Amino acid sequence: MSKPLILVTNDDGITAPGIRKLISIVNEIGDVIVVAPNSPQSGKGHAITINSTLSFEELNLDGPQKDFSCSGTPVDCVKMALDKILPRRPDIVVSGINHGSNSSINVIYSGTMSAAVEAGVEGLPAIGFSLSDLKWEADFDQAEDFIRDIILKTIENPMPKGVVLNVNIPNLKKEEIKGIKVCKQANAKWEESFDERTNPHGKKYYWLTGYFNNMDESEDADETALANGFISIVPVKFDLTAYEYMNELNSIYH
Amino acid sequence: MSKPLILVTNDDGITAPGIRKLISIVNEIGDVIVVAPNSPQSGKGHAITINSTLSFEELNLDGPQKDFSCSGTPVDCVKMALDKILPRRPDIVVSGINHGSNSSINVIYSGTMSAAVEAGVEGLPAIGFSLSDLKWEADFDQAEDFIRDIILKTIENPMPKGVVLNVNIPNLKKEEIKGIKVCKQANAKWEESFDERTNPHGKKYYWLTGYFNNMDESEDADETALANGFISIVPVKFDLTAYEYMNELNSIYH
């Protein structure tokens, strides 16, 4: 069998330590092409660039992979890679390793996960990886063996269409990580608290801040698994239909 | 019963004809506060503003509602409204009327729908309305009675937590609209085709273009309902867990 073609992207930008670690892992598995944002794109969700233009350029970075720096969002990167950069459809798309958790509700704000979802919409197997440590100098070594294992298992066990994986890694040493748990998305949210300031011209402005509120203590929730020292894997879908509410809604609009 | 407090937002910007029509409809139902972007935010998905600041200002526009123009994305608008602008939690949040369809997979790219989803995350009833006509001068009068009906029904019949409504309106005259259908999100996607150009300095750049590919002919898909002249309502959830794949995934990671 020929080597798999692997597309790598992220939302922290092409020079972030998290993506460089992910590239080093997949370089041992297949032929690697990186198409990642040229600037930080955290919290960009599933944004695409409609009203302005996009560009990309090849960089010369260490390693056997090819690196392309793209001006857009993470989802733009996946679209450009598939339409303009890759020689053929990739066998798998991996996104991350994100600097910071994308567990529970964070999946909908995350550029890292939205890139994986966009690959899923294109019918490709895709995984987003995130480490529960926001720092630029976070230690990504600890989870290397687990990440390799999850990518190999995903290549060997094809996922159904319409599903991608959201993998979150606790900020623990390798020997402290208890294993891998398949989980559901925890019921959690951010409680907003905007930080109000006044600019030199007397006008008020705001920084988005807040605290994370986990309302879900169930055993199989990703937040619970992470708190207990496990790596969480949530299968994520992009058919957002709430099928379980259709009957009741039909009775209202009969 | 006191009048309901209604928050209105959108992604086309606070001056767009679509939101002004929606405001005129809800002004007859309750007390209305508008917090909407000060610039077009189409395709911004669930993006939030983390690395720069936000501001808002009150405008003096015709009508009994209060209008606040906000510098952020649609999701930022909902967050700022709830934390900094509204006197109390609103009874319902309505987003739109979007200039252009947000049916099928468009729900994940849409700023209009992401604003509704953000309200849902906050535990509020929320509806996104979209008209299948991208034009600024689209005719929003045709669906006025249907929109009023859907908002009143949603106030009277509380939705379960975790669900918001995605309402799409075909571009037809009022007498041509066949009614309202509860639907699932059609299986559809955009086929990318970037338009490549060369700038005056010899560097290539790209415009995102493509065509819509509906792969779903099922009777209860939103695209089918719209094609048959119905208004589609899809109940949308933001627990993205693919529960139906958890067993198989567990067998891989047992």
UniProtKB/TrEMBL annotation, chains A, B:
<dbReference type="GO" id="GO:0000166">
    <property type="term" value="F:nucleotide binding"/>
</dbReference>
<feature type="binding site">
    <location>
        <position position="42"/>
    </location>
    <ligand>
        <name>a divalent metal cation</name>
    </ligand>
</feature>
<dbReference type="InterPro" id="IPR030048">
    <property type="entry name" value="SurE"/>
</dbReference>
<keyword id="KW-0378">Hydrolase</keyword>
<comment type="similarity">
    <text>Belongs to the SurE nucleotidase family.</text>
</comment>
<feature type="binding site">
    <location>
        <position position="98"/>
    </location>
    <ligand>
        <name>a divalent metal cation</name>
    </ligand>
</feature>
<keyword id="KW-0479">Metal-binding</keyword>
<feature type="binding site">
    <location>
        <position position="12"/>
    </location>
    <ligand>
        <name>a divalent metal cation</name>
    </ligand>
</feature>
<dbReference type="GO" id="GO:0046872">
    <property type="term" value="F:metal ion binding"/>
</dbReference>
<dbReference type="GO" id="GO:0008253">
    <property type="term" value="F:5'-nucleotidase activity"/>
</dbReference>
<feature type="domain" description="Survival protein SurE-like phosphatase/nucleotidase">
    <location>
        <begin position="6"/>
        <end position="192"/>
    </location>
</feature>
<dbReference type="InterPro" id="IPR002828">
    <property type="entry name" value="SurE-like_Pase/nucleotidase"/>
</dbReference>
<dbReference type="GO" id="GO:0005737">
    <property type="term" value="C:cytoplasm"/>
</dbReference>
<comment type="function">
    <text>Nucleotidase that shows phosphatase activity on nucleoside 5'-monophosphates.</text>
</comment>
<dbReference type="InterPro" id="IPR036523">
    <property type="entry name" value="SurE-like_sf"/>
</dbReference>
<keyword id="KW-0547">Nucleotide-binding</keyword>
<protein>
    <recommendedName>
        <fullName>5'-nucleotidase SurE</fullName>
        <ecNumber>3.1.3.5</ecNumber>
    </recommendedName>
</protein>
<dbReference type="Pfam" id="PF01975">
    <property type="entry name" value="SurE"/>
</dbReference>
<feature type="binding site">
    <location>
        <position position="11"/>
    </location>
    <ligand>
        <name>a divalent metal cation</name>
    </ligand>
</feature>
<keyword id="KW-0963">Cytoplasm</keyword>
